[in-house]
Amino acid sequence: MAETPLLTLTGITKRFPGVVANRDINLAIQRGEIHAIVGENGAGKSTLMRIIAGLYQPDEGQIILDGRRIQMRGPRDAARLGIGMVHQHFMLIPRFTVAENIVLGEEHARGGIFSPREAEARIRELAAQYQFELDPTELVENLSVGAQQRVELLKVLYRGASIIILDEPTAVLVPHEVEELFANLQSLRQAGKTIIFISHKLDEVLEIADRITVLRAGRVIGTVPASQATKEQLAEMMVGRPVLFHLEKPPVKLGGPPIGVLEVRDLTVLGAHRREAVSGVSFVVRQCEILGVAGVEGNGQTELVEGIMGLRPVARGKVILLGRDITGRPPSTIRNSGVAFIPEDRQRQGLVLPMSVWENAMLGYHRATEYRRGVFYDLGRIKDRVRSLIRTYDVRTPDINGRVETLSGGNQQKLILAKEMSSSPTAIVASQPTRGLDVGATEFVWQRLLAARAEGLAILLVSADLEEVLALSDRVIVMYRGQIVTEFVPGTLPATTIGEYMLGIRRDTPAPVGGEKA
Amino acid sequence: MKRRWVSLGLSLLGPVSALLISAILGAFVMLAIGKNPLQVYAVMISYNLGQLDSIGSIFYRATPLIFSGLAVAIGFKAGLFNIGVEGQYYLGAFFASWAGVYIKGLPAYIHLPLVILFGIAGGVIWAWLPIYLKVKRGAHEVITTIMMNSIASAVMLYFIHDVFMDQNQGTLGAPRVRMPPIQPTARMPTMLGFLHAIGIDMPNYVAINWFLVLAILAAVAVYYLLWRTPFGYELRAVGQNPQAAEAAGINTKNIQYQAFLLSGAIAGLVGLSDVLTYFGYLDIDFPKGYGFSGIAVALLANNNPFGIILSSLLFGFLERGGLGIQALAGVPREVTTILEGVVILTVVTVTAIIGRRVRAYERHMAALATAAEPPIDTQAPGRGQ
To answer: Is the model's pLDDT at A461 over the cut of 60?
Structure first.
């Protein structure tokens, strides 16, 4: 590349109290390329992107755009310089139309009067230019996640961005939508736009990017052309050691026929606004088995899990554990009868963040008599037990008296795993167990789940990450609008077909008469 | 062990620096009214600490505040804002007075504990409706307890004036609006005898009494309850993250119910030190406002029971000092009220700022300890977009 780069960062360092998030970063972005930035959680990707997007000011170093040194005081400066960012969490107003969302903050008014027609026309033009499928008059709340992301992209383009930063754009998309996004990105590249793409999904990065920069511990480890990189090589650069991608999932030998452990019969659970979120779902999880639940998020998986765990009233149907009806029992009873629970949002449902590590390590099991002497807690005994627990589960913490919120996401999840799995359960309900975790911690969680499976536990695994479901499960069910639309064994269906089931384009079970209310 | 001292130091850093800042802000108030702040503070300190009756008075003034602060803190710990301590202690005082006046013929060692139990019952009864409405109907406790406060003050007035007014006040002057005197068997003795016995020559007009010891014991009990029992554990978990508590199998509504009634029970004790020792009867000028002061006390102490003892003493100090600077430095009492407000405001802001720093420091330590992982902060302040 003899060309002078469009954007050059030299010696960028950014410190936060007590930490250095970016350390002496050197990075050159070429005009018209798709440049991926990969790295584990906490590697400093987001901080770096926020510096480029003008949200943070670096403590040291320079940013050179088109040969000129620039200094930005905020995102408005960045926008003026043609830099725009699409955040992982969309910043859209659901009750506004596509056009209203796009022009928000940039409304052109004539004599104080805003003309939506004019804005809509401009957006239509813009969308056509880059072959985006989008109706500017539609309300954002009616759009799919993929379409909402296109709105965010258009928002940035509308403001005249020539450099577009995308923060983990595929994290929220189903396979089919990822393809659409990639097609959009290709056409943007053809139109001469420069794209910076943050991700930790290596397959995607290899598919879409021209060049890839790996960050680790706030430093640049290297930049490689995608055509010459391999997944293994990138993973090693990211983690600092070789990473196994191949999961050992040995068939488990049983003495006799497998016993159904956790059974759900014709379960109906109401969601928000008393709508049926889960409608007549039935399945059995057997011992030594992982049953995966795939599906686009928001298709009743959360309510299914909460219905099973007693956190949400069951409208109809039954939940049966080893032949015992546990439908509608309080969560404590369900836990005590042997169902371990790994909730989908570890910070909101799994932990009490301001409480200490040792207190969180007994959450849910805190009434156990072995923790007490008389009416009072035996702190010595509890802490001894917690220390051995966190050693076994490799939870890294300086001090078990410290607040659990100071731990990294991976260590928080390990702590949840430690307390749930050490309670000798017969079944595990695991919801999004690796969400937001880096490669190392994900590997650990997967191995623990497989180990539990080998020990004979029945595991219900709900995940929005299709790869994860396929890698771990013995059988998979796909949920769409609260129903099971198919069941299959991983490896027997191509990803595109699974995607069609997830989007409701295809179903094995007949749709209910009268259709579902959206 | 070293860490423990570090964290104790850090937790005191907030209140102490806030006090210094509010002293400086208070100085501006005094300058504005043409007083020399150094002189005023000097008067306040010498008046408060230079004479035994002031010290006794500070402890006497702190007594109801300890109960009130504890009541508020229990609510806060369970995620409930009990503004109703005010009304709950009116009712507690009325119940106790009724039992002190009309239950007759009991020896003191039965009568006094019984009267105290009546006070507790009054607080619990007045706390019941708000928490019932909250748990069953989702009515916000802040709204309902404010309403209950208004009702309590009207109800108490009605009882004192219309139902139980003392008709035998003699013929001299206009009769006071008050209930008949509480029987001697129900009066809480002062600590003067004890203090004299251990060689502290406390003047006889100081009403320092055994409710002080009861309040300190209550603080210790609350500490053990919150931090050493499964119930306290659940209460704190519910207060800090009800969703996680529920997922962990804790019956959050039940816990809130019990916590609020406990808060009401302690609130019922707030007024007893005044009624059962100093006044000896419940009258219409019975001291008001302890419930609101309790919110400030709990806030200043960050809901820590031992901190509540200290912050109650601080408020006692300011109140007593207010008398001193009014009499000796010509500073109006209102300045003391302003000072109290300034203390609360600075404590709230300063502790928030320091708390953020402390958490960043803790996170840094945690990151360093995870040796294999680099010291990268994924939740640096300001990053949350």
So the answer is: yes
In a domain, A1, yes or no: no
A481 and A495 co-located in one domain: yes
- Scan residues 344-373 of B and list those with Cβ closer than 8 Å to A: 357, 359-373
Report strand pairing: A68-70 vs A19-29: unpaired
For residue A303, give the CATH number of its domain.
3.40.50.300
The band of B254, judged by pLDDT with boundaries at 50, 70 and 90, is very high
Q: Does one domain contain both A131 and A228?
A: yes
Across all residues in chain A, what is the average pLDDT?
88
Q: pLDDT tens digits for A320-363? A: 999 999 998 999 999 999 999 999 988 889 999 999 999 999 99
Show the tokens assigned to A431: 């919801």
Among B255, B351, B353, B373, which would you mutate to test the A interface (most chain A Cβ atoms within 10 Å of its Cβ)? Answer: B373
- Full domain range(s) for residue A96: 7-239
Q: What is the DSSP letter of A484?
A: E
Interchain pair A355, B236: CB under 8 A: yes
- The three-state secondary structure class of B380 is coil
A257 within some domain: yes
Pairing of strands A339-342, A427-431: parallel
* Whether the Cβ atoms of residue A204 and residue A30 lie closer than 8 Å to each other: no
Q: Is A363 found in the same domain as A442?
A: no
Q: Do B385 and A44 touch (CB under 8 A)?
A: no
Q: Which stretches of A367-408 are DSSP H helices?
A: 379-392
Put simply, the answer to whether A396 touches B372 (Cβ < 8 Å) is yes
| Number of helices (H), then strands (E), in chain B | 15, 0
**Domain boundary, last residue among A424, A451, A473:** A424
Q: Confirm whether A343 is domain-assigned.
A: no
The tokens for A323 are 């032949």
How is residue A307 written in tokens? 């219905």
pLDDT at B226: 96
Mean pLDDT score, A474-481: 93
* Best mean pLDDT range from A133-137, B9-13, B113-117, B341-345: B113-117
What angle, rounded to 10 degrees, do the helices at B108-137 and B85-102 form? 150
Instruction: Compute how many other C-beta atoms are within 10 angstroms of the C-beta atom of residue A492.
Output: 8
Do A287 and A398 belong together in one domain? no
d(CA B116, CA B96): 6
DSSP label at residue B102: H
pTM comes to 0.79
Q: Please give the Cα distance from B375 to A406 (Å, whole number).
A: 12
Q: Say yes or no: A22 contacts chain B, CB-CB below 8 A.
A: no
Average pLDDT in the A386-415 region?
Answer: 88
Q: Is A267 in the same domain as A323?
A: yes
